[in-house]
């Protein structure tokens, strides 16, 4: 049987998302995700499989000590099982598209296959770059190696989040710091991340608006456990909140976001010493700022839904009322997050409205787990910018019904709004497959 399937693998710091596509139709055959990988509780994964017009769902739990690679091996075994793909299952997967958070200086996806002479060189180079995104790149490269070994006839295509942001002007990429006396794996400039998500959102919004991508102007808030914002002008990234690593910018579930650089030396005096994390050496400073900060440090949980319910408890559920300490710490966390988010969105919106080519704002887009689910956060952001509607006498604003309820891609502001806001469910996996297929075609494979 000919290779007729494409696999997308999206590795997070403690999660693995995956989707198997038909090469011909791009329809999803199998999709799912693993959560709590290498966490304190047992890891689990679930996936759904379309067969005969019916959706079949499966769930499996694994021991808490199961390694990242072993979780993926279990996923791959089930996804490529004979009852799903048939007897020649290994030969049916043409390519595996991998989300790699940090691509360093790479200016295009990288294509490798087991046994290629460039294989080890690529793996070594990407391992060097992993120090700039230690929570993600290391895991992703472990899975690349697994796919090269267990799917040797398939191409592995490395799809980098950083590619989308290469259009950011140099004066915004440069840090006001001297060139280091030693050689670094990559230049110390802003790279930006979540690029696959932003590219997919741009595609979706261009389709929604019926405009060429090159004419679309967006301000996008990709808000999840790790979040960032991006200014897209004429279809290109011109500014984003993350920097040389994903730590800069917004606070997240366990990340500090932007802080005074001197803070870590006072908080963790031995911050330059190394600790083991997920089989890799990282500095204590990196570990504290990436894994022991953010929402969890402020209020004891990194679940934004829990934070909202504690910060603004419902009077109709007195039995579930938070303690006063939970209420106050969660309210502080929410207010801090909202303030940081507004501090990035405001100048991005201003950049569009004040541009010299009289550009229009096509949308303020909310995406990611928090952006898609938190109606209150969206409302509070838009109410902050209500002065723009009043100034323009537009009569716009939040459409409460559409903001509170609905699924999928939708506008959540009233007709005539100067700041048109949207909720867009992003698909990094779709973008990875599109990018990987284009790269294979470009190289004549």
TrEMBL record:
It catalyses: acetate + ATP = acetyl phosphate + ADP. Its cofactor is Mg(2+). Its EC number is 2.7.2.1. Substrate binds at residue 99. ATP binds at residues 17, 222-226. Keywords: ATP-binding, Kinase, Magnesium, Metal-binding, Nucleotide-binding, Transferase. The record marks 194, 255 as: Transition state stabilizer. GO terms for molecular function: acetate kinase activity; ATP binding; magnesium ion binding. It holds the Pfam family Acetate_kinase. Mg(2+) binds at residues 10, 428. The active site is at 161 (proton donor/acceptor). This is Probable acetate kinase. It comes from Rhodotorula paludigena.
